[in-house]
Design goal:
The chain has 9 helices and 12 strands. The protein has 276 residues and is α/β, with parallel strands linked by helices.
Length: 276
């Protein structure tokens, strides 16, 4: 059983502190949802765990199966079993969807293993059909000309074929209509197993109607401030986050300043080409 441990993680970008001591443990078979207002570090956490080079780790550690991965590059972390379904998947002209996923899967094989191409083609086509991606997906260039919903479903297709140990799903619900959201939720639910730990990053409670979370965490000002279960989702759905800010003594004006600062920093330093 895989286990991801994030211990007192503190991180910044260009001198701007973004994470302020995040603690989180995710085991295989568990589904965790991370929620919170805009600009609180949710997507940043996923990017840092995957090894985005623009962020600086100031304190803390990230362990996968008991071993620190702080010194590993993005591809090395992926080979060890981490996966990120991106919030904004990029388009890659000239590289077909099939070749991209085949290369990713092949890179994770052991030295004495070989990809059985015929069996893999069948798996690819079955996943594309189940996610309603249409015919000819394998020959289309990666995400080029895709709608927002198609890009998100394509990320889930990649995850199902790559078969990671721990997967971050960063706002996979954005860009999906109700039918597509239900389709993705059911597909990911069918993937749940003791060998896969899931972290869902979302603003909207509707995703959790189709994909049940075992643990719910609220992130504010770069740290997890409250954890719970389904009751926490219901409270947020009816009352928003103001009750929690009041409970924690968070100043609304100061919160807006922090969100503005984080947004400005990200816009200035991160470009589409930087996406993982």
């Amino acid at each position: 059983m895989a286990i991801l441990e994030i211990r007192n993680l503190v991180a910044s970008i260009e001198g701007q502190r973004i994470l302020n001591g995040v603690d989180l443990v995710v085991r295989g078979g568990e589904t965790h949802a991370i929620m919170g207002p805009n600009g609180t570090g949710k997507s940043t956490l996923a990017a840092i765990v995957m090894g985005h080079p623009r962020y600086r780790i100031e304190a803390g550690d990230i362990l996968l199966d008991g071993e620190s991965i702080l010194d590993l590059k993005v591809d090395q972390r992926s080979r060890k079993g981490l996966f990120l379904a991106m919030q904004n998947p990029i388009e890659v002209p000239g590289v077909t969807n099939f070749d991209f996923v085949k290369t990713a899967v092949s890179a994770r094989l052991q030295a004495d293993e070989h990809l059985r191409i015929g069996k893999f083609i069948l798996r690819f086509e079955a996943a594309a059909k189940a996610l309603n991606m249409g015919e000819g997906l394998s020959h289309r260039f990666l995400n080029q000309g895709f709608s927002g919903g198609e890009k998100k479903r394509n990320e889930i297709l990649q995850m199902s074929l790559i078969n990671p140990k721990i997967a971050f799903l960063d706002e996979i619900d954005s860009g999906l209509d109700v039918d597509a959201l239900k389709l993705v939720g059911e597909y990911v639910t069918n993937m749940k197993s003791p060998e896969l730990g899931l972290i869902l990053i979302t603003h909207y409670e509707r995703l959790l109607d189709y994909l049940t979370a075992d643990h719910v965490h609220i992130m504010i000002k770069g740290r997890i401030v409250k954890s719970g279960g389904a009751e926490l989702i219901r409270k947020i759905d009816t009352e928003g986050y103001d009750w929690l800010k009041a409970e924690l003594g968070i100043d609304e004006l100061e919160e807006q300043k922090i969100q503005y600062s984080l947004g400005s920093c990200a816009a200035k330093t991160l470009s589409p080409g930087d996406k993982l």
